[in-house]
Amino acid sequence: MQETMTIRVDAKTKRRLEKLADATARTKSYLAAEAIRAYLDVNEWQIQETKAAMREADAAGPDDFIPHERVREWLHSWGTKRERKAPR
User: Fold this and answer.
1) CA distances from 61 to 49, 50, 53, 57 (A)
2) How much is the pLDDT for 86?
3) Is the model's pTM score more than 0.70?
4) Over the stretch 58-76, which tens digit does the pLDDT of each residue have?
5) Is residue 41 a part of any domain in this protein?
6) How far is CA 27 from CA 6, 7, 14, 22, 80, in A?
7) Cα–Cα distance between 18 and 12 in angstroms, integer?
8) Is residue 56 part of a domain?
9) In this prediction, what percent of the chain has a pLDDT beyond 90?
10) SS3 65
C-alpha cells in the first residue's frame, strides 16, 4: 500500500527532478520514491555493518586490534625520513 508524503525541496532541485522525469518518462513522484529507497538501502546497510563491526571489536581480545595511537603515529610517519613499517 502506498502512502502520500509531502516534502520541500529548493527550486533548483525541483527543476532538476522535472527535467529528469521528462527525460525518463517517469513521474517526479516515482523518481523521488526511488531516490529515497536507494538512500535508505545504502544508509541502513552502512549502519548495520558499522554496528556489526563494533560488536566484533567489543568481543575481540586485546591482541586482535592495533591501538588508535599506534596507527596514528604510523600514518603521520608516511613520507618522512622516519617512515615506519605497518604496525602489527
Assistant:
1) 20, 19, 14, 8
2) 86
3) no
4) 998 888 888 899 999 999 9
5) yes
6) 15, 15, 12, 8, 56
7) 10
8) yes
9) 82
10) coil
